[in-house]
Amino acid sequence: MYKSLIRPLLFKFDPEKVHYFTFDFLKSFCRIPGAIDFLKSKFLLQDKRLEREVFGLKFPNPVGLAAGFDKDAKLYKELSALGFGFIEVGTVTPKPQPGNEKKRLFRLPEDSAIINRMGFNNEGVEKMVERLRKNTDVLIGGNIGKNKVTPNENAVDDYLYSFEKLFDQVDYFVVNVSSPNTPNLRELQGKEPLKKLLNSLQQKNDQKAKPKPILLKIAPDLTDEQLLDIIEIVKGTGIAGVIATNTTISREGIHSENKNETGGLSGKPLTKRSTEVIRFLSEKSNKAFPIIGVGGIHTPEDAIEKLEAGASLVQLYTGFIYEGPALIKRINQEILKKGI
């Protein structure tokens, strides 16, 4: 029903407006008594065999929602009712910022892809903290970034600020230095600035009574040499793991008319490359740290490939938009069937 009726209707309208319309609709629908339970009965698959313990956290199932969808933690409870085992909110910055000028979100239906150049549009970490204080049962990841106006030499301060503010409200942190939509942000993926940033965060983390897992989200456009540096940095800084991968700036093999729009590309064109990065990190590190696999998961088979390549968990974003919420349950059913 979603792909035959709902998606064609939604795809007739501007993608960013549809995103906010869908948020408002789902929020309103879930205010109806029994609506949350109805969604869970239709989409949530509960089975002990799906539970995963990764970096010290117990996940009810290994399929999560990637950052970028619920940027301001406005809908995490309702989204979790669709069957996700965990929700990653953000990317959030210390101060509110509007992001890049519109139009900044583009569908590429011929390629089952999306290009975005949103630019970390969000209401700021203070607002996120207020909303997450209401959370009682959803496992939450906090994806943190720097404000656009913050120069790279001061970027550590932005990440530390959001880390401190969010510490009591999230279960794990993700350091986003790999978005292509904030000027010069990817320069922080360089070996020395990245070591400085992650060491600063981990040192602050180690001062806590109960430290939280810190993960690094990396770009799919890194070379093998750069990926080897990532392995060395993760081991050296002692952070918990890696999310592979963010969106790509590559347009190889893209056919849709919007292919020349600037921004990060996500969806099916990323399937193969993100899996290659997962496998490379897993094999070259000898499975030294957990990996969350994200990028181009549109079928249960896509998710299985990433898990078999070395991912401990997976996340959806573009596949969720193109395939609908039933994809989550289908992936979990296939995981049970395969006994993974």
TrEMBL record:
Q: Which UniProt keywords apply?
A: Cell membrane, Flavoprotein, FMN, Membrane, Oxidoreductase, Pyrimidine biosynthesis
Q: Which domain of life is it from?
A: Bacteria
Question: According to its UniProt record, which reaction does this protein catalyse?
Answer: (S)-dihydroorotate + a quinone = orotate + a quinol
| Cell compartments where the protein resides | Cell membrane; Membrane
Q: Where does FMN bind?
A: 67-71, 91, 143, 176, 217, 245, 267, 296, 317-318
Q: Where is the Dihydroorotate dehydrogenase catalytic domain?
A: 50-337
Recorded GO molecular functions are: dihydroorotate dehydrogenase (quinone) activity
Job description of the protein: Catalyzes the conversion of dihydroorotate to orotate with quinone as electron acceptor.
* Family recorded in the similarity comment: Belongs to the dihydroorotate dehydrogenase family. Type 2 subfamily.
NCBIfam families (alphabetical): PRK05286.1-2, PRK05286.2-5, pyrD_sub2
Question: What is this protein called in UniProt?
Answer: Dihydroorotate dehydrogenase (quinone)
Specify the species: Christiangramia fulva
Q: Which gene encodes it?
A: pyrD
